[in-house]
Structures are given as structure tokens and as C-alpha cells.
Specification:
Helix content: 40-55%
Radius of gyration: 27 Å
Structural class: alpha+beta
Distance between the termini: 40 Å
Strand content: 15-25%
């Protein structure tokens, strides 16, 4: 059994280029449908000035929507090109536990309580609430390194007090 482990963050999911292109095609398809609907609804209007005014208003609205779509499209491309940042999130060793994102260290003797509720690790430190932290284990590479039960055994190996572990059973969605 491993006695030390370092959990790393999981990179954020990014949309692929194909998905971005499908998104753009869908949005411009909606533009075409809106254009066809507006043409149908305004086909009975005989007043030329009213048609020109409505045409300008709709054109300005569609250009504004087009600007927002292109801006979002460029944001998605920038997000896709950005390299994922993977950083250490949690280290468990024989000396103690270290939570890297907030630079908090706690020795095993100073920890008053450890809980894992629905894959959220919560550590409470005696007399120093500034060292308390919570970590969602789904945002780490825990599943790639070991099973959650093995992780819980590792914590029990180092932390001699009782660890509170609770998992909410999955619901079928029926409200029962």
C-alpha cells in the first residue's frame, strides 16, 4: 500500500474545434430560420417606409447578435489553444497533509477532524481555523491513481482518529 500520495488538479474540459464549428453552424442556421420567419410575417405589410424601418431595426439586432456570437466563438478558440495547467492539489505524507492551492499545511497531530462527504474532503485543524480546507476529490486525479476506498485507507493509516465518511446514494430521479 502506498503511504504517500500527491493529488494533482484535473485540467478543465475544453470544447473541440469540431464542436465549435457545429455550434457556429447551428447559430447561423437559427439566424436563417429567424430571417425566413420574419420575411413571412412581414410579407403582408404594404407600407414601404414601415418595411424599411423594420428592416433596419432587425438588421441592427442581427448584427449585434452576430457580434456576440463571433466574440464567443473567438473566446472558445482562445480557450482551446490555451495549454492546460496542472498543479499539485493535495499531498499526504507521514508528516502531515498539505493543501497546495491555499498553501496550508497540517501535521497529523494537530488535525481535529477529517470528513469525506460525497467525495469532498474536509479537514479541520485544532485551534487554527485558518488551516481548515475543503477539496472536491472529483477535481483531482485520485481516480487515476487509486480507488477512493484505498485513499480512505491511506488517510486512516496516517490519521489515527476516526474519519467520518458518507456517500449519498444515487437517486433514480423519482423523488423517493
Amino acid at each position: 500500500m502506498k503511504t504517500e500520495i500527491t493529488l494533482h488538479s484535473v485540467p478543465e474540459e475544453k470544447p473541440g474545434y469540431i464542436l465549435i464549428l457545429l455550434y457556429i453552424a447551428f447559430v447561423y442556421g437559427l439566424f436563417w430560420v429567424m430571417d425566413q420567419c420574419l420575411t413571412y410575417f412581414f410579407s403582408d405589410i404594404n407600407n414601404v417606409i414601415l418595411i424599411k424601418i423594420l428592416n433596419k431595426i432587425i438588421w441592427i439586432g442581427l448584427m449585434f447578435l452576430n457580434y456576440l456570437i463571433v466574440k464567443h466563438f473567438l473566446y472558445l478558440i482562445r480557450k482551446q489553444r490555451k495549454r492546460p495547467v496542472i498543479y499539485p492539489a493535495l499531498n499526504i505524507s507521514k508528516e502531515g497533509i498539505t493543501y497546495y492551492p491555499e498553501n496550508k499545511e497540517a501535521e497529523w497531530g494537530t488535525i481535529s477532524e477529517i470528513q469525506i462527504i460525497d467525495s469532498i474532503l474536509s479537514v479541520t485543524v485544532d485551534f487554527d481555523s485558518k488551516k481548515d480546507f475543503k477539496l472536491n476529490l472529483f477535481n483531482t486525479d485520485l481516480q487515476g491513481q487509486m480507488k477512493q476506498t484505498d485513499f480512505e485507507k491511506l488517510l486512516e493509516y496516517h490519521y489515527k482518529k476516526e474519519i467520518y465518511i458518507y456517500s449519498t446514494p444515487s437517486s433514480c430521479g423519482c423523488g423517493c
